[in-house]
Amino acid sequence: MCAALSFGKHKKYLCPICGYYLEYPPEDFNICPSCGVEFGYETASRSSEELRKEWLSTGARWASNVENEPNGWDAMLQLANLGVTSNSQNLIHDTNATILWEASPYSLTSRST
Questions:
Q1: How far apart (Å, rounded) are the C-alpha atoms in residues 97 and 88?
Q2: Res. 16 pLDDT band, cuts 50 70 90
Q3: Which DSSP letter does residue 48 get?
Q4: Total structural domains in the chain?
Q5: Per residue in 21-56, pLDDT tens?
Q6: Cβ neighbours for 47, distance < 8 A, ≥ 6 positions apart
Q7: Phi, psi for 30 (deg, rounded to 5)
Q8: Helix, strand, coil % in the chain, rounded to nearest 5
Q9: Which range marks the domain in which residue 73 is found?
Q10: Cα end-to-end distance, the chain, whole Å
Q11: For residue 19, is it left (φ>0), alpha (ψ between -120 and 50) or beta?
């Protein structure tokens, strides 16, 4: 397993938005330090897929100002914990091979379907 995928693996919960391993369950207004989603607030009216697309479209940056980004952290590799991967053409797709986003060297942009 790649080191970037295992950050926080000693924690037992997985963020359904970005694939980061969490210390607390993704509920009860806990906040993921990786994508910044507040579970129970933002997830009340939006799906995991919608929130993931938003995180990706803003550059998939580390969100927390409290918890430091782990050394070598890689958002794109972390997404593999959810079955969301990128290929050699920089297309991010889900487990059904549906293209979700096209990554450019500078940003991630929505791919029309």
A1: 14
A2: very high
A3: H
A4: 1
A5: 999 999 999 999 999 999 999 999 999 989 998 998
A6: none
A7: -70, 150
A8: 20, 15, 60
A9: 3-110
A10: 32
A11: left
Q: How many residues does the chain have?
A: 113
Query: Which residue is it, tokens 């450019």?
Result: 104
Per-residue 3-state assignment (H helix, E strand, C coil) for 73-90 = CCHHHHHHHHCCEECCCC
Distance of CA 91 to the CA centre of its chain: 15
Tokens of 105: 């060297």
Residues 6+ apart with CB under 8 A from 89: none
- CA-based Rg of the chain, rounded to a whole angstrom? 13
What residues pair up with 91 in beta bridges, in sequence order? 102
> For 86, phi and psi rounded to 5 degrees?
-115, 155
Specify the residue for token string 């991010």: 92
Confidence band, pLDDT 50/70/90 cuts, at residue 9: low
Tokens found for residue 23: 């210390």
C-beta of residue 80 within 8 angstroms of C-beta of residue 94: no
